[in-house]
Amino acid sequence: MAMLPYGRQSVIDEDVEAVSAVLRSDWLTTGPQVDAFEAELAEVTGAAGVAAVSNGTAALHVAYAAAGVGPGDEVVVPPMTFVATASSAIALGAKIVFADVEEETLCLDPAAAAAAVTSRTRVVSAVDYAGHPADYDALRKSVEGSDALLLADAAHSIGGTYHGRPVGSLADLTTFSFFPTKNLTTGEGGGVAALDPELVKRARRFRNIGTIRERDELRRPDEGGWFYEVHEFGLNYRLPDVLCALGRSQLRRLGEFVTRRAALVARYNEALADLDGVRLPVRQPWADPAWHLYPIRVLDGRRREIYDAMRAAGIGVQVNYIPVHWHPAFADLGYRRGSCPVAESFYSEQLSLPLYPTLSDADQDRVIDVLGAALRGRARPAAA
Predict the structure, then answer these.
(1) Does a structural domain hold residue 4?
(2) Is 267 found in the same domain as 237?
(3) Modified residue N6-(pyridoxal phosphate)lysine is at which positions (predicted)?
(4) What does the pLDDT profile of the chain (384 residues) look like in tens digits?
């Protein structure tokens, strides 16, 4: 029996046709599909504008650059995330300050964030873990009295809402990932949304190697129609037209994706409610998550045992994530285990069950059955 992955893209004929149309056009990159995708993303997210970029890590790098992060600055980051939330700020010379997460949502704890903010803090980065929005109103209060910007790493949560407000309108800067396992895909890709049009402009320039063509901003405006200048260095993080066309097609189904993920989460919650040995994810009443992961906690020190048993039975469970400060690159900088006990305890128990829009009820029932059997010590290897 085939291995069920923990995540999978949903690509249909309309997506293929959208990509094919661009391949037959005059534009493969930096053309009309990019502008259209950015405009549609801004409408869905409630942002002033969006810069489409080449991947989710690039989105973080671009957002930090737009925020002016540089040497001597501090960036506050929760450890329960992928390493790029922190490493992309280090690439700009910043120092990372880790702040622990909340016990229920595993999102950045506003009290821990407030305690971590100093006069050197440039950005406080929240992460919408598993697709559940962080508590942005409380996080706003944590940066009051400072010059820090609030960033939402929304790689998991596009299509979700917080107090009825869409993800993308909740923080000064919001980053998205459009990797195949995410809530919509462009193959590889990402986006940076901002509430301030000036931040949008800075993000777009950084992703386009820092080039400026606007005549009123050129230092030599009369050089000629070919002329451009670079005032601040950037990188080539552009997302091509062909992938933006895929993103536009996917974006039309975002509501469908979010609804199906929510239905699968509800089925998991009902089926696993009385299962001994696990704790289920929590949803706060003020959030309407765009569930990207279904993260359970396996109790009594059995996470590795259950992971191995389910993998052997053809269920592609995953662990999300290794606490960022545990990676050797951070240990070598002096970061130590034990500094974020809530995140570290969660990691020791965390297991992501398969969750994606095309997961059938029958396959989900198979996941549920194998998990129950594994907890009872009776899981069987998958048939060849």
Answers:
(1) no
(2) no
(3) 182
(4) 789 999 999 999 999 999 999 999 999 999 999 999 999 999 999 999 999 999 999 999 999 999 999 999 999 999 999 999 999 999 999 999 999 999 999 999 999 999 999 999 999 999 999 999 999 999 999 999 999 999 999 999 999 999 999 999 999 999 999 999 999 999 999 999 999 999 999 999 999 999 999 999 999 999 999 999 999 999 999 999 999 999 999 999 999 999 999 999 999 999 999 999 999 999 999 999 999 999 999 999 999 999 999 999 999 999 999 999 999 999 999 999 999 999 999 999 999 999 999 999 999 999 999 999 999 997 677 765
Q: Which residue of the set 95, 141, 182, 201 is catalytic? A: 182
Q: Assign residue 245 the CATH number of its domain.
A: 3.40.640.10
Among residues 235, 251, 267, the one where a domain terminates is 251
262-296 per-residue burial string, b: 16 or more CB within 10 A, e: under 16: bebbebbeebbeeeebbeebebbeebbbbbbbbbb
* Residue 383 placed within a domain: no
Number of domains in the chain: 2
- Given 234, 251, 268, the domain boundary residue is 251
Nearest of 80, 67, 182 to residue 126 by alpha carbon: 80
| Residues 219 and 260 placed together within one structural domain of the fold | no
Return the axis-axis angle of helices 241-251 and 32-45, rounded to nearest 10°. Answer: 30
